[in-house]
Amino acid sequence: MLYIMTERLVLKPHTQNSLVWLNTTFNNPNEDYFNGDDPPRERPETLEETQKLLDRILNRPVDADIIDYAIHKRDTDELIGVGMIAHINHYNRRCDLGIGLGWNRDNWGKGYASEALQAVIAYCFTELGLNRIGAEIYEFNAHSIRLFERTGFRREGVLRQYIFKDGVFKDSYLYSLVKETWEHQKKS
Ligand SMILES: CC(C)(COP(=O)(O)OP(=O)(O)OC[C@H]1O[C@@H](n2cnc3c(N)ncnc32)[C@H](O)[C@@H]1OP(=O)(O)O)[C@@H](O)C(=O)NCCC(=O)NCCS
After folding, report:
1. What is the pLDDT of residue 8?
2. 62 CA to centre of ligand 1 in angstroms
3. Is residue 116 a contact partner of residue 83, using CB atoms and an 8 Å limit?
4. Which of 68, 128, 155, 176 is buried most, with the most CB atoms less than 10 Å from its CB?
5. CATH code linked to domain 4-187
């Protein structure tokens, strides 16, 4: 079970209490990322639909190749974001990360995502014993590009014209951080 305490945050498993926050976030038109490369929504996602996703998260087997977590403020326990360690492959010792702050923009631009991401990276390399962490970021997601580059990820590839957004084909960038680079960065 993932439970990480940082200076200002607690990263911990979701509970049923995440439902309304998730639904509000998924239905926020600014949160493009959460809609991925699906067609634009024709109507808001219902609570029942979000509940199905939450049920999948809450009922994942312990040996699943994905770990979902909720990001809470330590002082108030407010839920401010979500993340996942996905595609965990223990033989090749790699995974992919996703992370997002939610609908409440008051929590953006305060370094919460950087703080959470740094902690999750350390967890992947030390607790899970992984060697490589990947991330895929759409070319227009400037906040996320800054977040991952600031945290030490390097761009290693481009999926050209990978997603169709607002009537235009857009690229998606592949990023990674490997353990030896992370260890080197920690020392310098
Ligand atoms: C990606 C995302 C999590 C980044 O959020 P963010 O608020 O920009 O990231 P952080 O929490 O690390 O905050 C960093 C910003 O806070 C500022 N900041 C303020 N106080 C800070 C502190 N104590 N520590 C670090 N940064 C601080 C930084 O200068 C930085 O500002 P800048 O981006 O203008 O340079 C957010 O945009 C998001 O949730 N997007 C939707 C989901 C998404 O796209 N996820 C990524 C998919 S790959």
Report:
1. 98
2. 30
3. yes
4. 68
5. 3.40.630.30
CA distances from 117 to 20, 36, 154 (A): 24, 20, 15
Task: Kindly give the number of the ligand 1 atom that is closest to the alpha carbon of 102.
Answer: 39
Distance in Å, CA 113 to ligand 1 centroid? 5
Tell me the pLDDT band of 1, cut-offs 50, 70 and 90.
confident
Query: Ligand 1, from 74, 114, 137, 155: best to mutate by most atoms within 8 Å of Cβ?
Result: 114
The yes-or-no verdict on residue 32 having pLDDT over 90 is no
Residue-range domain boundaries for the chain: 4-187
